Amino acid sequence: MEDQVTQESCPVPVPTVVDPWPATVRNGQCAADGFSNHQQQQQQQAKTPTEPDSFTVNQEMKITDSVDGEGLLESSLRLKPHEAQDYRKKALWVSWFSIVVTLILAVAAFTVSFMRHSASAFGFAFDATLDVMSSAIVLWRYSNAAAVHSAHREYIACVILGVVFILSSLCILGKAIHDLATKMPPEVDDFLYSVSIVSGLSCSVLAVAKFMLGKKLTSRALITDGFNSLVGAIMGFSILISAEVFKHHADVWFLDGTIGVLMGLIILAYGVKLLKDMVPRIRQTRNYERFE
User: Fold this and answer.
1) Which residues, at least 6 apart from 124, have a Cβ–Cβ distance to it below 8 Å?
2) E strands, 181-280, in order
3) In the predicted model, is pLDDT for residue 17 greater than 70?
4) In sequence order, which residues have a C-beta less than 8 Å from that of residue 68 and are 6 or more positions away?
5) What's the pTM value of the predicted model, to 2 decimals?
6) Residue 32, burial from CB neighbour count under 10 angstroms (0-12, 13-18, 19+)
7) What number of other Cβ atoms are within 10 A of residue 172's Cβ?
8) Of 165, 143, 164, nearest to 154 (Cα)?
9) % of the chain beyond a pLDDT of 90
10) How confident is the model at residue 146 (pLDDT cuts 50, 70, 90)?
11) What pLDDT score does 20 carry?
12) Which end of the chain has fewer CB within 10 Å, C or N?
């Protein structure tokens, strides 16, 4: 009797049968929902403690994007480090070559200008001198390998270029207006033809090379330098055109001076726009400079 009372007071629990194969995997079939839901639950449980970290990563990405507009150029996202350095070296080589070529052309153009009283030749000589200075500024811009993507350094170079553009344009305009006021016609000879053809071709090649490198490095300074070379090419060919027109039509003596005025105004407008765009950006990026 005592044994029966003890068994009744301590009932044996009913065993629970656990199905080792859930319904989602019976009969050799694995239901994607059941298995994937189980994995997703595990992943969610695993991600729950690290949700602040994922938010931090997203926040850092947004910060990087904002810095890209202020502290770094777009090339920092497009180019790999070794590609950026390769293009930087090419920009340095092109700048050195441009300095040598345009310096020789500037001396030749100044000689033609004073000997033949050509406003276009004087304008080209000043533009070639400007090309020498702008290429030197590009050399400074890319002299620091660590600052290849520095927006602050880029904007400083552009501001210097803008100031040089404005000063040079004033000299070109002064010379061209003086020649128009005094009705001074250009003199034509073979030396003038040679200088104009060599100048136009050389500056055209330099302009293409600078535009291509500027696009790769997203460099406004390089593109500005290329624009200056393009103006030099136009002015080089304009010497040839104005001289040829004057040779056959002496009454169109003003074409040479008019082209000089036009090129001077273009350079002046570009310089003013460059300063207007870049001066505010220098103020925005001075706190983001990391490479100096």
Assistant:
1) 105, 109, 196, 199, 232, 235, 236, 238, 239
2) none
3) no
4) 74, 76, 77
5) 0.67
6) exposed
7) 29
8) 143
9) 26
10) confident
11) 47
12) N
Whole-angstrom CA distances from 233 to 153, 170, 228 are 28, 19, 9
Q: Average the pLDDT over 154-176 and give the result.
A: 89
d(CA 210, CA 221): 10
User: Which H helix or E strand runs over 162?
Assistant: helix 151-181
Contacts of 290 (CB under 8 A, 6+ apart): 71, 150
**Which tops the pLDDT comparison, 187 or 249?**
249
pLDDT (tens digit per residue) in 49-88 = 444 344 343 433 333 334 444 477 787 788 888 898 999 9
Buried b (16+ CB within 10 A) or exposed e, 178-217: ebbeeebbbebeeebeebbeebbebbbbbbebbbbbbebb
- Helical segments of 48-150, H only: 51-68, 75-78, 81-116, 119-141
